[in-house]
């Protein structure tokens, strides 16, 4: 029974815990509604590199090359890469390496490390190709969202026009009814 009461007390304590007080700089914004210029300016955006939770990050959105990452590039270099063809080629190569790994694990299990490294290289190349397509994907997604918004707005305008015509018709009918009386 003591454990049960302890659990109830523990749950009650957990349920009644309060949030910590707000940080002291909230007082800088107390007159913001009356005078928005009374609040301090926001800090400038971070440029370059910064540290967050122990990791170093950069503000530039540049995809590092495979050579910069120390990985052998398995597809042709340059701007005119046929992504579809190269992705299919790398996918086929990956399947072949996985089958070879299965054979090696059966016949010579001690020699699997080289095949695993080759599979890792193919995966890194696949990911790099896919990541280089991210800007195109983002652009296509944005275009799709904007087209949907335009379509919805056109539908809303058509609905407003129909309701306006219906209101005019009802108004003309009611005016005609009043004139007849």
UniProtKB/TrEMBL annotation:
Keywords: Activator, Coiled coil, Nucleus, Signal, Transcription, Transcription regulation. Transmembrane segments: none annotated. GO terms for cellular component: core mediator complex; mediator complex. It is found in: Nucleus. GO terms for molecular function: transcription coregulator activity. One of its GO terms (biological process) is regulation of transcription by RNA polymerase II. The keyword Protein biosynthesis does not apply. Component of the Mediator complex, a coactivator involved in the regulated transcription of nearly all RNA polymerase II-dependent genes. Mediator functions as a bridge to convey information from gene-specific regulatory proteins to the basal RNA polymerase II transcription machinery. Component of the Mediator complex. Belongs to the Mediator complex subunit 7 family. This is Mediator of RNA polymerase II transcription subunit 7. The lineage of its organism: Eukaryota, Viridiplantae, Streptophyta, Embryophyta, Tracheophyta.
């Amino acid at each position: 029974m003591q454990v049960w009461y302890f659990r109830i007390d523990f749950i009650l304590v957990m349920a009644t815990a309060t949030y910590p007080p707000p940080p002291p700089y909230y007082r800088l914004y107390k007159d913001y509604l009356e005078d928005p210029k009374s609040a301090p300016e926001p800090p400038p955006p971070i440029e370059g590199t910064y540290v967050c939770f122990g990791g170093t990050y950069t503000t530039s959105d540049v995809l590092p090359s495979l050579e910069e990452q120390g990985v052998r590039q398995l597809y042709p270099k340059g701007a005119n890469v046929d992504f579809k063809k190269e992705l299919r080629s790398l996918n086929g190569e990956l399947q072949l390496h996985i089958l070879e790994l299965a054979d090696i694990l059966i016949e010579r299990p001690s020699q699997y490390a080289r095949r695993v490294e080759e599979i890792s290289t193919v995966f890194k190349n696949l990911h790099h190709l896919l990541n280089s397509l991210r800007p195109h994907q983002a652009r296509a997604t944005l275009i799709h969202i904007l087209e949907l918004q335009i379509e919805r707005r056109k539908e809303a305008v058509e609905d407003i026009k129909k309701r306006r015509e219906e209101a005019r018709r009802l108004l003309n009918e009611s005016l005609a009814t009043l004139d007849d009386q």
